[in-house]
Amino acid sequence: MKKLDTVVDDVYNVLSCLCDQETLDIPEDYIEDFGERMKEALKHWATPKKDSGGLRMSTVGRPLRRLWYDLKHEVPVYNKTHPSVFIKFLYGHILEELVLLLVRLAGHDVANEQKEVEVDGVKGHMDCTIDGEVVDIKTASSYAFKKFQEGTLHEDDPFGYMAQLSGYEKAQGTNAGGFLALNKENGELALHRPAEMVKVNVENKIRNIRDAVLLDSPPERCYAPVPEGKKGNLRLPRECGYCPHKHECYADANNGYGIRTFIYSNGPKYLIRVASLPKVMEA
After folding, report:
1. pLDDT tens track for 175-184
2. Which residues make Cβ contacts (< 8 Å) with residue 173, sequence separation at least 6?
3. Cβ distance 259 to 272 under 8 Å?
4. Which residues is 118 bridged to in the sheet?
5. pTM
6. In which element (H, E) is residue 139 found?
7. CA-to-CA distance for 147 and 279, rounded, in angstroms?
8. What distance in Å separates the CA atoms of residue 159 and residue 67, rounded to the nearest whole number?
9. CB contact set of 241 (below 8 Å; sequence gap of 6+)
10. Is 233 helix (H, G, I), strand (E, B) or coil?
11. Are strands 133-140 and 128-130 parallel, antiparallel or unpaired?
12. φ and ψ at 263, to 5 degrees?
């Protein structure tokens, strides 16, 4: 019986024949199953479900102010998801299925895929269990991959992955799972099994969220602004750049003008205080 701890080495070992110019033997039923999964992934991606607006296990790890806006306000039209993001969603889903194919080829037991679970009325769909433990499959850039590889995710977890995993484990009654991450830039794999002490008490988290949503005004801001240059400008931190509520959240910025967006060579920067006009185009 395979153990989760060896899953990365086992995948690499089963693929090592390719390094020697030898054929990788993939059972025909695995090939057929993978083809069907690709069809389902494409169909699922092409028909997204309307967001119900309720709390879900995939969102409980978000900061309280972000959740307050999520649960009480509509996303502004000008902050709707860009089409390019949906392309990213599609290949992310496809790569997750590829990882699970490799895990199966390496002899590990994969079960409970997309199983619906519930904690205190909050539902979610877990990726799977591998060898009996809850595992979340993640595809990541090289920058984000280091958090899984080095075990530092709990120190910088803007998308709330730790709370998500903790919720799935609470529902399953297990506590030794983790994340199987794929570096989508170079194909490297890493298994991160967080220590129990850094996991989230998801039941307390859910109670805090429900209390916060009852407030008439949003909780304190999630992250502090950061200096942009040395002339007194302030910008939103990277985490806020992904938030669809950033313009509403910072409507009082720049003396009531709101966020001003400037297009730098490495991407947009959202300034909440413009003391010195940047020498780049403003959106």
Report:
1. 999 999 999 9
2. none
3. yes
4. 123
5. 0.89
6. strand 133-140
7. 34
8. 12
9. 268, 270
10. strand
11. antiparallel
12. -95, 100
